[in-house]
Design a protein that fits this description.
Blueprint lengths: L2 H14 L8 H13 L3 E2 L8 E6 L4 E7 L26 H17 L7 E7 L7 H8 L7 E8 L6 E4 L2 E4 L1 E10 L3 E2 L9 H18 L7 E10 L5 E2 L2 E10 L2 H22 L2 E8 L4 E3 L1 H13 L3 E4 L9 H7 L2 E7 L18 H16 L3
Parallel strand pairs: 3-4, 3-5, 5-16, 6-15
Antiparallel strand pairs: 1-2, 2-4, 6-16, 7-14, 8-12, 8-13, 9-11, 10-12
Length: about 375
């Protein structure tokens, strides 16, 4: 069986059996079995899910990373290998990323005696809840690593195309919850209450003006309210309403500016209408900042590997590969997957032809990296 067929077969098996963040027990077992069959060394890190493999000898270490978790989405992609787990799907392509790095492991193992150092491959759990990178770092997976490389498939790029950039790439991610505590009343006598739904609706409208009117238009920022929840019947003004949303930025100063304004606006509404509004911020990953030198090297390797290369646009999504880059220089890249539907969509269906060339690419990149340490 060809390498491409093997990797596509593994990807389909992973796709049929997706597991959510920190529940990737069977996924980890499959990866372990495939690596053991190829006589790839697995390091004894204490991890509940996920694992770290290593190939080669010597003092210099470079790392490759794949994420392995899935999403709580019911799949409707028209493929023969659809998820058999109700309500769970590899809608972000982590099954593809895992297969790519498994392929790199096989190729590097074939060349192990010629490697000038060690290639450490991180099969990371829990990227979707932004905890997996920190867990691997705490376990010691980045110890003595000189450079680290990772990828995300990009459904908006054709297969055979590649993009990255030096500096900021993916965004800071913040989740915000606003709880409006009004006063309930009969809907026929609204003057006896404090209408939390009316206040929440006005709050949403005002918040949309922060990004468009209070931040320099040259700065990237998204502030979106994504959930409104309040009330349980037609003739009662509810006591409270909860809003939830997200803030995405690429610069810390902009992030802090917008968070401060959201807090101020909520406090102003609370004072003006005599209610209580709680604002709770939940921090996700920080902005992913690629090392510019490694971005240039990665792009040159992509060109020699046959990819059409692009300078990537800023990405407003979050990615916990950013945590690795806070500790170790490296680069995160986009590789075209040409899906009609985008990431996190129930119809997401990446083109599997990307897998084997990407495995070859990361093999080449890892070997090239040793010459630039």
């Amino acid at each position: 069986m060809s390498l491409a067929s093997t990797l596509i077969g593994w990807r389909r098996e992973l796709h049929q059996h997706p597991e959510l963040s920190l529940q990737e027990v069977a996924t980890t077992a499959r990866i372990r079995d495939w690596l053991h069959a190829a006589d790839v060394n697995i390091l004894p890190f204490e991890l509940n899910t996920g694992l770290v493999a290593e190939i080669g000898r010597g003092d210099d270490i470079v790392a490759l990373r794949a994420d392995i978790d899935a999403l709580p989405i019911e799949e409707n992609a028209d493929v023969a290998f659809r998820s058999v787990t109700p309500g769970v799907m590899h809608a972000c392509g982590h099954d593809v990323h895992t297969s790519v790095m498994l392929g790199a492991a096989l190729l590097l193992k074939q060349q192990e005696s010629a490697l000038p150092g060690r290639v450490r491959i991180l099969f990371q759990p829990a990227e979707e809840n932004f905890g997996g990178a920190k867990a691997l770092i705490r376990a010691g997976a980045l110890q003595n690593v000189a450079a680290i490389f990772g990828m995300h498939n990009e459904p908006g790029l054709p297969v055979g195309e590649f993009a990255t950039r030096g500096g900021a790439f993916y965004a800071n991610v913040d989740r915000v919850v606003l709880r409006v505590h009004g006063k309930g009343a009969h809907a026929a006598r609204p003057h006896e209450g404090k209408d939390a739904i009316l206040l929440a609706s006005q709050l949403v409208t005002v918040l949309q003006g922060v990004a468009s009117r209070e931040v320099n238009t040259l700065d990237s920022v998204v502030l979106s309210v994504t959930r409104i929840q309040g009330g349980n019947t037609w003739n009662v003004l509810p006591e409270s309403v909860e809003l939830e949303g997200t803030l995405r930025t690429h610069r810390t100063v902009v992030q802090q500016q917008v968070k401060s304004r959201v807090n101020d606006i909520a406090a102003g509404f609370a004072h003006a209408f005599g209610v209580q509004i709680d604002v709770i911020w939940h921090a996700g990953p920080t902005a992913l900042v690629n090392d510019s030198r490694w971005a240039e090297i990665a792009t040159e390797v992509a060109k020699t590997s046959g990819y059409t290369t692009h300078y990537a646009d800023l990405h407003m999504g979050g990615e916990d590969f950013a945590v690795y880059l806070q500790n170790t220089p490296g680069v995160f890249v986009s590789i075209g997957s040409a899906s009609e539907y985008g990431l996190h969509h129930p119809g997401f269906n990446p083109d599997e032809r990307l897998i084997e060339p990407a495995a070859q690419y990361f093999t080449h990149l890892a070997k090239t990296a040793f010459t630039h340490l």
